Amino acid sequence: MKLRSSTRRLLVLGLLAVLGTTGTTTAAHADPEATGRGAWEAVGPNSIGGLLAVAGSQVAMMQPGPPALWLSDDRGASWKVRRDLPQDTLIQGFFADPVNGNRMLAVGNKPAGFNGEWAGMLLATDDRGVHWRTLREWYPDGAFQLATDPTGRTVVVSNLDSMSVSPDGGETWNDVPRTWPREGIAAPVGSQKLVLVGDDAYFTTVYPEYSLWVIRGVTSAEPKAELVYRTNDEINQVASDGRQLVVTVGAELRGSTDFGRTWTTLRRDPGGQPLREPRFAGGRLYVGTYQDLDVSADGGRTWTRKPVPAAGEGVTDIVELPGKPATTLISAVYRGVYADTGKSGYQQLGVPGESIRDLVTAGPFWKQSLVAAGVQEIYNSPLPQGKLTPSDRVWQSHPGDRLHEDSKFSVSPSRPDVVWQVTRNGFALDVLRSGDGGRTWQLVGKPKEGSPRAILANPADPNRILVTAFAPSGYVLYRTVDAGKTWETIPGGGFLAMAGDPWNRNRIWGGDGTGLSRSDDGGKTWTHVSDEPVSAITVSAWGGRVLVGGAGLLLSENNGRSFRRVRDGGNPREIGRIVAHPLDPRVWYAASTTGEGVLRSTDLGRTWAPLAAPVPDRAVLSLAISGDGRYLFAGTEQAGVYRLTL
């Protein structure tokens, strides 16, 4: 809130003087009874897909990497997450017991050492992901694919130079040595390379021969590998419903009803695009491109075509969710899980698994929007208010205009309807502007050199924008005083955090791992103030307070002439963001990236304590508060945005 006259400013400063002399009270230590009206609520954005499985009416989705198990007991209306999986491993195969939904299997894999060595493991849970145990590890051959019979009793895992088979759910194993071709460090990366049909395991090979092979009698005393199908083109993926085999061969889907002895072309993409991700689900056969999804209800004789749920993303997995009516669920790993509603299109169900690295509110307080930056995407939504519904978690994304990678935002309080964004564009950076709460974006000027680090829309002059970057020549600061019509480049100043004085457009603060700096000429020159690491800075509009986050919190109560430590910390980027309550100058919030959730001060930043209401996912990267002070929003690592009613 910006005061429009010197008289109002003096009244506020007088009030602050009274508040500042009252001393520290019990409430100043974040009184649990004053921290909010309830628990944090997930508000989205629905953004992540993965490997799907269904057990009764329960839906499970395995996020491949960083691995996380998402569970829904209400047909995808809401989700909870469990993360007790090796975080440095990519999950490449997932199974959930259709009868006993507590039992699940997951195959994980990661590069290990040099010369094509891999470390793989088969993980199992009997309590829906609360605890995982390792059934087996593979090194240096890795574990690339997982196939099971419908009960999960027979388990097959493909490795670089063998096929591992367990007849008892992963407790005991037999390894079938490789007799199929493989050259060098060629590895069967990608999905749908292995399928179990009865007691036979069909799989596609890799360089130098992309063919279909089978191990017959995988659980027998003498399993035998043999070539099934070789063509002049590369055979890529394989799927089966137990009666029919299908393989993708370039732009074609080919099928066999006699277990590989004869083949027919079932589908050819009209545009010659490679077909991918064949699936059998709900008695239907699916295959598609990155743009379109082909569906056949008669084994591939006739087809209908529809767009994929998220254009350009293709399909990661498809399953049938039984019920009245039965629902087809379609996953796109970078966009979410969708329900195919038939003629009315797709309904996005989840999952809110994005890491929200930056978060701002935009617009007047009676009509605000939330704008969020993920890893490679940005999202926007009308500010979620009142009772939440599933539609509140469906935010607008921007997949078609550019790759929004490492995006940062800034909004000047004197122009709250405009959001400024800096984002990486290959080896350059773009500065973008939105005047409608993040719904549309316009490029400001030409792309600039470097990787973005921070952006500041000056709170005292919204036409002044500062952008820091790491360029080929080193750290630089790009500066404009005319809303991007012209820019100047200033060497140095590669700050990770910046803030401006709301009353003095020339006073700017910047900081990074080397410490805190101040500019008194709008960013042209800088004075080093402190060696303390800096990851967040906020300047209060009330009473000359400057709060600096890094390894703990520093506070200045005299416009930055001196600072004192008000909270200890160890990690130099422990504080992700600091925001002030818009109506109560005593109250501040800080995001803890190291697991404490959200910190709160009720005495003008002098003392701090975690909120009594814990954020479900405690690594908080960003914060925003509604203009009326009713709602606090926390952007988390791999769990989207949560809302707390204040």
From TrEMBL:
InterPro entries, sorted: VPS10-sortilin, WD40/YVTN_repeat-like_dom_sf
Coiled coil (residue ranges): none
Key words, A-Z: Signal
UniProt keyword Signal present: yes
Organism: Amycolatopsis xylanica
Protein name, entry field: BNR/Asp-box repeat-containing protein
Keyword Lyase: no
CDD domains: Sialidase_non-viral
Signal peptide: 1-30
